[in-house]
Specification:
This protein is mainly beta and 95 residues long. Helices cover 5% and strands 56% of the residues.
Length: 95
């Protein structure tokens, strides 16, 4: 193993009573509003849909995010082109 190998980061989701979500392995927050949060994680793009969503905590140095609100849907995508803003992520995923 050489000295240039990047360590594998941990990605974890913890949902409590569909009212709070903690995510690790967050690289970047692409967009957010009270109905959808789109993140880039170590495992691909993650879209979180819900109602009255609020970012409670964000620490990109540690790769941590905490969200409160009613969690309705989670979806992963490897396609980085889904970041365009023309349609919602779920509309593009479930054509």
């Amino acid at each position: 193993m050489d000295n240039y190998t990047k360590p594998i980061s941990s990605h974890r989701l913890v949902i409590e009573n569909r009212e709070s979500l903690e995510v690790t392995g967050v690289v970047h927050v692409d967009s957010f509003d009270d109905e959808e949060v789109v993140l880039e994680t170590e495992q691909g793009l993650l879209a979180i849909r819900g109602e009255d969503l609020h970012i409670k905590q964000l620490n990109l140095e540690k790769g941590e995010l905490a969200i409160e609100g009613l969690i309705l849907e989670l979806a992963y995508s490897e396609d980085k082109r889904l970041r365009d803003r023309g349609k919602g992520l779920f509309e593009r995923l479930f054509k």
